[in-house]
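Subject line: Sequence and fold of a protein, written as structure tokens
Enclosed: The protein record, placed directly beneath this head.
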Amino acid sequence: MLGCQTILKRLLPGLLTLLFAAFSFTGCGRMTDTSGLTGLWILNEADNSSFLIPDSLVEDNRLSLRLDPGGSGVIEGVSAEGRILWRYEDGTVYLRAGSTALSGIVEGSELILQSEDETRLHFVREDKSRTSEEQDSTMEEAFLGSWYGWWKIEDSQGQMPVTWYDCCAVFETQEDGSVLMTLWDEDGSRTEPLSQVRFKPEEDAMVSLSGYFASMEIRGGQWLLTESDPAILIPDIDHNAEGENFRATVYMRRWGQSWSSTPAEQRPFYYEDWYLPLLKQKAEMPDQIPWQRLEAKRERPAQ
């Protein structure tokens, strides 16, 4: 890495240098990646109501952002680069480099960030001319790690009640290159999961190879997981095994993410009792949901 002053002098000549002059690429507190926005973003347009930013200047400097898993990354120009920190929360992207902060949104295929002087930077995802191996890796990275949410039972034709449960999940890479999802709810634990399914990362989805959900076998190609940023949704699971017939849905967000923008009735049942205290402590996800030690059993309304 080049020194801070060298980066500031060489990163972007002319006007774009002014836009990023405050970027002192020094260490600062690590922020958490709670999204699926990882990858390379290329600046293709910049605008400001007070002055003109020529397209040629943007093109000549070839500014890019690389958003890495875990909330770190790199900003890079023609001749220099520097470290950044970033996070995604409640629909907003926050990016920080030293004492400089930007924020913005994702609109379609564009990441739009705005600085304090109201300059807007429009980034687009890296061109799809990547190898299939690189694409697989990106899809895998979008899922790896810890997740928290709920799963619910509907249209039950057996003994299973029509209700919903808090659940946790971990996605881990296996030696054979597959990704193993281990999912447990409050009646189980990581060592006694509700579901374990192996997936193969492909270009646009995680494709099931084998596994189970409750008492039902999950076969190759039966489940296709596509990340609905920043959540995982597994809808319309048609469970029909061992005399238990019901329809199920799983909805999870990354561990460590606030659900404040989600209506209260759509949050996990023990969100405030269990999850929020751990969120404030920035604690890692435990292997069991200790619902017995929370409030007394409450009647669970069907969601």
Remarks:
- The domain at 4-125 is CATH 2.40.128.50 (Lipocalin).
